[in-house]
Design a protein that fits this description.
The protein is an alpha/beta fold. The chain contains 8 helices and 27 strands. The structure holds adenosine monophosphate and magnesium ion.
Length: 429
C-alpha cells in the first residue's frame, strides 16, 4: 500500500472516505474475465469493448405493411394505376424483376428489392376496381418513406457497448440482435457477509430479554446478490474477539470482500476494528454522515504468505449495526467499491433538487441523510420526512423514497427550503 494509506482516526467527509477506499482498492485490483452465454449474462459486466460484427439492419427493409415502389415512377396523375408484380414477406424476399410503374406487396421487416426505394402504407392504397392486381395510391408518397436503410442503426465495426457496461435486458437484446451468443464478462465479486453481536438471534429462534433478530445479514446478502455479487453467508458471531478472528481468518481465503455489521463503534463489545488491525490493516473507521458514522474500512492479509504479494488482500467493510446505518453505508460506500471491483464505472450519486415540506432538525458536523418521501408537484419535488431519524427503524427506510443530502455544515432546515435528495437506488426496490 502507498504511504497515504495510514490508519486515520478523524471523521472523514463522505466523498473523502469514498475516494480513500476506492484508491486503496484500485491500487491492488485484479480483474479476471470469463466467457458466458448471453442467457447467463444478465447483470454481468462486459470485460471488453464490443464492436458490431454485422450491419443493422442487415438489409434495407420495410417499416410498414404496404407496397414498395420506385419513387421515380410516381406521376402527378391521382388515378395512376400500380400493377402489383409480386410480394416480399419477412423471411421470404422477392427475387423477381419489378417492371417500371409497378409495385410489390411488402410486409414489415421484409427486404426491399434493390431498385425500389419507397413504401406506401397499406391504409393509403385502394384496389383499382375489381382488379386485385392493381391499386391506386390515395396520397402522394415522399421519396424514401417508410424504409429502414441497411446499417442505419449500426454499421459493421461500430462500437456498440464499451467495456464496463452492465448487461441489462436491453444490452442482452442488442447482443442477440448482433448474433452474439457468448460474451466476455468479469468474474463476479465474491462477498462474505456476517453479523456480530451477542444480542442477535436468527429468525425462527426464540428471543430472550434484550435480544433482537438479525435483520442486517439477510438485507445485505440480498442487496449484494441483487447487485450481482457471488454472496457467501458467513453467519453470525458473538462479541468475542477470538470468535471473530477465527471466522475472518477462515473466510479470508475464499472471498474477495467481507462485509460485517455491528461491533465497529466505541462500545466495550466492539471488536471489529481491533481484530482487523491484528489480521491486516484498518484504514479508517469514522465517516461524517448521519446515520452511519461508525464504518470501518481496511483489509485482511491472506493466510497464504507466498501468494500474499500476488493477490489483492480481502477488503473488509465493517458496517454499523443499526439497520438503517448499515443500509446507508452499504449504498454510499460499499456499492461504489463493488462497482469498481466488478469492473464498472463508479456511479456518482444522483441528486435531485427538492423543497422541504416541514422543517428538518440538523446540527453542523455531518452530512445528514434523512429519510423522506417524495411528491412530484407542479412546483417541483416536495420532500417530506418519514417521521423519524432513528437508525434502528428499518421500516422507515422501506417507506422512504429518498435520502436527503443536508450538507455537513448546514444547520436546521426551514419548511420550503431547497435541499438535495438522493432517490433510493434500484437495489432496494
Ligand atoms: P453495534 O454497532 O454493534 O453497536 O449495534 C448497534 C445497534 O444495532 C444495536 O442496537 C444492535 O442491537 C443493532 N444491531 C447490530 N447488528 C444487528 C443486526 N445484524 N440486525 C439488526 N440489528 C443489529
Ligand atoms: Mg454490537
Amino acid at each position: 500500500m502507498t504511504s497515504t494509506m495510514q490508519p486515520k482516526v478523524s471523521m472523514l467527509p463522505l466523498p473523502e472516505a469514498q475516494q480513500r477506499l476506492l484508491t486503496a482498492i484500485r491500487s491492488r485490483m485484479q480483474l479476471t474475465a470469463t466467457t458466458v452465454s448471453i442467457f447467463s449474462a444478465l447483470d454481468r459486466t462486459l470485460a471488453a469493448d464490443l464492436f458490431s460484427p454485422i450491419a443493422v439492419p442487415t438489409a434495407t427493409n420495410s417499416a410498414m405493411d404496404g407496397y414498395a415502389l420506385r419513387f421515380a415512377d410516381v406521376t402527378l396523375n391521382p388515378q395512376q394505376r400500380w400493377q402489383v408484380a409480386g410480394q416480399s414477406l419477412a423471411g421470404h424476399p422477392f427475387d423477381g424483376e419489378v417492371p417500371p410503374g409497378a409495385c410489390i406487396r411488402i410486409t414489415t421487416g421484409a427486404v426491399m428489392p434493390a431498385d425500389l426505394d419507397t413504401v406506401v402504407m397499406q391504409e393509403d392504397t385502394q384496389w383499382a376496381g375489381d382488379d386485385a392486381t392493381a391499386l391506386f395510391i390515395k396520397q402522394r408518397p415522399i421519396a424514401g418513406q417508410h424504409i429502414r436503410l441497411c446499417g442505419s442503426e449500426l454499421e459493421i465495426g461500430q462500437l456498440v457497448l464499451p467495456q464496463g457496461t452492465v448487461l441489462g435486458p436491453l444490452q442482452l437484446g442488442l447482443l442477440a440482435t448482433l448474433g452474439i451468443a457468448q460474451v466476455s464478462v468479469y468474474k463476479k465479486v465474491r462477498v462474505g457477509v456476517l453479523s456480530s453481536g451477542d444480542e442477535l438471534r436468527q429468525p425462527g429462534e426464540v428471543l430472550q430479554d434484550g435480544d433482537l433478530f438479525d435483520s442486517n445479514r439477510i438485507m445485505l446478502l440480498s442487496v449484494l446478490k441483487r447487485f450481482g455479487c457471488d454472496v457467501v453467508d458467513l453467519g453470525w458471531v458473538r462479541d468475542d474477539p477470538q470468535a471473530l478472528r477465527s471466522l475472518l481468518q477462515k473466510a479470508a481465503d475464499s472471498v474477495d470482500v467481507i462485509v460485517s455489521s455491528g461491533g465497529v463503534s466505541v462500545g466495550d463489545a466492539d471488536y471489529t476494528r481491533q481484530v482487523l488491525s491484528e489480521l491486516g490493516q484498518m484504514d479508517f473507521w469514522q465517516v461524517a454522515i448521519k446515520p452511519g458514522k461508525p464504518f470501518a474500512f481496511g483489509w485482511l492479509n491472506r493466510s497464504d504468505t507466498e501468494r500474499r504479494a500476488q493477490i489483492p488482500p480481502v477488503w473488509l467493510f465493517g458496517l454499523p449495526g443499526n439497520p438503517v446505518s448499515a443500509a446507508v453505508t452499504c449504498e454510499q460506500l460499499l456499492i461504489p467499491a463493488l462497482q469498481l471491483l466488478s469492473g464498472q464505472q463508479v456511479q456518482k450519486p444522483v441528486l435531485w433538487p427538492a423543497k422541504t415540506v416541514q422543517g428538518l432538525r440538523k446540527k453542523p458536523g455531518r452530512l445528514d441523510m434523512q429519510r423522506v418521501s417524495l411528491q412530484v408537484t407542479a412546483d417541483g419535488i416536495k420532500a417530506e420526512s418519514v417521521g423519524t431519524d432513528s437508525s434502528g427503524m428499518l421500516s422507515s427506510m422501506m417507506h422512504a423514497d429518498a435520502l436527503t443530502w443536508l450538507e455537513q455544515q448546514r444547520n436546521n432546515v426551514e419548511p420550503g427550503e431547497d435541499i438535495w435528495v438522493q432517490p433510493k437506488s434500484c437495489w432496494w426496490r
